[in-house]
């Protein structure tokens, strides 16, 4: 069994977990800002008008959790860290991408609320990513 096969099984398990504890798989939409320099005057189309980099959207399956924060002495603080575990069978999330939790790509709209991804931690015990843990901005 390859690492990709295991990643597919984990993606299926994430969807199954969402069905078992919620209303179905928790679908999320990852939004990645368009590549390129938005202020570069040389980014022009054939008509001479500025060409803006286009954002891309990717659908992920996730489970969500919260982690309590402790200070240096071990005392629990009121702050929580929001974490999301997503499948690794599609795009690789990056720090700085944004994600809409619980919003399938087909349901994403102009007014959809996206949360910034502060930290991405791949779960890759054999070198192949099987899932990603995302720490989201509070």
Written overview of the protein:
With about 140 residues, this protein is mainly beta. It has one helix and six strands, in the order αββββββ. The chain has one domain (about 5-35, about 55-135): Thrombin, subunit H. Helices cover about 15% and strands about 40% of the residues. It has a six-stranded antiparallel β-barrel with strand order 1-2-3-6-5-4. The chain is globular, with a radius of gyration of 18 Å. About 20% of the residues are buried.
In short:
This protein is mainly beta.
Write down the overall mean pLDDT: 84
Residue runs with pLDDT of under 50 for 5 or more positions: none
Summing up helix and strand content along with how strands pair, one would put the structural category as: mainly beta
Number of domains: 1
CATH architecture: Beta Barrel
CATH class: Mainly Beta
* Helix percentage: 10-25%
CA-atom Rg in angstroms: 18 Å
Which oligomeric state applies? single chain
Features:
Thrombin, subunit H, 6 strands, mainly beta, 138 residues, globular, single chain
Task: Give the SSE map.
Blueprint: H1 3-21, E1 26-32, E2 56-70, E3 76-87, E4 98-100, E5 115-123, E6 131-136
Antiparallel strand pairs: 1-2, 1-4, 2-3, 3-6, 4-5, 5-6
């Amino acid at each position: 069994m390859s690492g990709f096969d295991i990643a597919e099984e984990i993606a299926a398990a994430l969807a199954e977990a969402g069905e078992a504890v919620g209303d179905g798989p928790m679908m999320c939409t990852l939004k990645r800002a368009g590549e390129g320099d938005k202020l570069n005057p040389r980014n022009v189309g054939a008509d001479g008008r500025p060409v803006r980099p286009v954002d891309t959207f990717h659908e992920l399956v996730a489970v969500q959790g919260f982690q309590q924060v402790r200070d240096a002495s071990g005392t629990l603080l009121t702050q929580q860290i929001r974490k999301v575990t997503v499948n690794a069978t599609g795009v690789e999330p990056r720090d700085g991408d944004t994600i809409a939790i619980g919003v399938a790509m087909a349901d994403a709209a102009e007014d959809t609320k996206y949360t910034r991804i502060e930290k991405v931690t791949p779960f890759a015990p054999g070198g192949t990513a099987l899932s990603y843990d995302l720490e989201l901005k509070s």
